[in-house]
Amino acid sequence: MQALYAQLLVGLINGSFYALLSLGLAVIFGMLNIINFAHGALYMMGAFVAYFLLNLGGINYWWALLLAPIIVGIFGMILERTMLQWLTGLDHLYGLLLTFGIALIVQGVFQNYFGSSGLPYAIPDQLKGGMNLGFMFLPIYRGWVVIFSLVVCIATWFLIEKTRLGAYLRAATENPTLVRAFGVNVPRMITLTYGLGVGLAALAGVLSAPINQVRPLMGADLIIVVFAVVVIGGMGSIMGSIITGFALGVIEGLTKYFYPEASNTVVFVLMVLVLLVKPTGLTGRAA
Amino acid sequence: MPDTAIAEAPAKAATGGNILQVRNLEAWYGESHILHGINFDVNAGEVVTLLGRNGAGKTTTLKSIMGIIGKRTGSVKFNNQEIIRATSDKIARMGIAFCPEERGIFASLDVRENLLLPPVVREGGLPLDQIFDLFPNLKERLNSQGTKLSGGEQQMLAIARILRTGASFLMLDEPTEGLAPVIIQQIGHTIARLKKEGFTILLVEQNFRFASTVADRYYVVEHGKIIDGFANADLAANMDKLHTYLGV
Questions:
Q1: Sequence-separated (6 or more) residues with CB below 8 Å from residue A26
Q2: Is B49 helix (H, G, I), strand (E, B) or coil?
Q3: What residues in A contact B104, CB-CB < 8 Å?
Q4: Which of A3, B23, B154, B199 could disulfide-link to B75, CB 3.0 to 4.6 Å?
Q5: Residue B135 DSSP label
Q6: pTM here?
């Protein structure tokens, strides 16, 4: 039983990263119509920025949690202004190829300087240790990752679905020309949206640094699964990508316990099944 | 609300001065050349109607003024400021508001969000209670999804949301299209009341019987040019010509 709970926890943690990343992908896709293949590389950059802040600047984890998303978000906004914006109106394929190229370049640069092995990032003192819950031992940092991710996901959902800014965002996703004709600076909003999506990826990177170490290819390994999550959840829905992210993490964890051989493929098997039955994804709207 | 408060709404009203001046306006959709030199004026406080057949260039004229058409040349002056090169968000912030033919109600927003979406660009917009006074239906359906409204309600929502922004110059593209006669009448009353409150309105209409109930002046658009213009008082005298122009 202990092992089952442990796998459930691992599932929830992976689910947190899936949710944060697929949420950012969904927001970016809605607004820019771009399938952001650079997302994994930007997640990795989030972890590296936290590492640099700590080792070069002596800036701790808590500040990194705030600063790394901002720094990587600004890097993302520069990418959008200088490159992605020119793809408006073109086929998805161009955006996919461009962001894939960006991902390869970014990962290549980091690999060149840091190799492929992981750099350590210590768990902050306040979150060290664990709690005995009676039925299992819970490392505090892992519990923190799950709860904090959930809070960030719900806050993002609230921002998009319940606020005035979110109403602009949803409206501009539907009809950017008209929203602009109402006096909203839509190009600037698109840049900020990309920054937001990228910032969420970087945040996930910082959260994962103490668990998975900081590696140039940490995003490349993860992003393939995240794309499967996005396909299963459907691109159109914010809440859908959050729920699907956590749910698939848990399903993966359960598979590790009951049938470990399938744990690496279960998400992809589900993706195939969903594509066969409902090609727009579980919560997606038809294009 | 007393009428005096309403009358103060858009300040520039009733001065009668020239508010919009369009000169030699040309516009392109991709490769196709749609407008071939449009010339006309709108004075403050007027309701001016562009008449013409399908595809004559009426909607393109509105969109070009709004800055939505990518390639456009010539001159459009709003309050004596040249706006031909401005982007549509800048143009909107100068006080021009556009209600598109397809209405543009957002499906992912509820009625309240749709209504509050356009940002306030200057002081003097209608307060919400006056908007609900004009369109009581909307008040009852604030929490419905925008596109769940009937066609008539959607048209009212599309007009209502640009009234609170403070824009004093409204461009309405075929507001009566596809609506039942009783709703058309209601829209007619609304336009008349907006005019009384000092809004300047540029209307595109196919239905000139409807237009004749609200318009001060008409321009006829054909093949991307203004080919004729006359005041409402001369409508009867121009009826034969008009039938030829519009093919009705």
A1: A230, A233, A235, A236, A237, A238, A240, A241
A2: strand
A3: 175, 178
A4: B23
A5: -
A6: 0.87
**pLDDT tens, residue by residue, A187-207:** 999 999 999 999 999 999 999
Q: Look up residue B164 and give its two tokens.
A: 């609170």
Cα radius of gyration (chain B): 17
Residue with tokens 């121009």: B238
Beta-strand relationship, B32-43 and B18-29: antiparallel
Give, in order, the Cα–Cα distances in Å from B8 to each of B14, B19, B61, B160, B197. Answer: 11, 18, 29, 18, 7
CA angle A33, A35, A39 (to 5 degrees): 130
Quick one: which of A36, A7, A19 has its CA closest to A148?
A19
Task: Tell me if B99 sits within 8 A of B154, measured CB to CB.
Answer: no
CA nearest neighbour of B248 among B213, B220, B214, B217? B220
A253 within 8 A of A9, measured Cβ to Cβ: yes
Partnered with residue B96 across adjacent β-strands are B169
The residue to which tokens 């004009």 are assigned: B134
ipTM: 0.89
Q: Which residues of chain B have pLDDT under 70?
A: 1-16, 248
Contact call for residues A217 and A9 (beta carbons, < 8 A):
no
- Residues paired with residue A132 on neighbouring β-strands, in sequence order: A137
pLDDT in tens, A6-38: 899 999 999 999 999 999 999 998 888 889 999
Substitution target in B105, B106, B159 with the highest count of A β-carbons within 10 Å is B106
- CA angle, A112 then A116 then A119, to 5°: 105
Whether residues B88 and A180 touch (CB distance < 8 A) is answered with yes
Q: Is A217 exposed, middle or buried (0-12, 13-18, 19+ CB in 10 A)?
A: middle
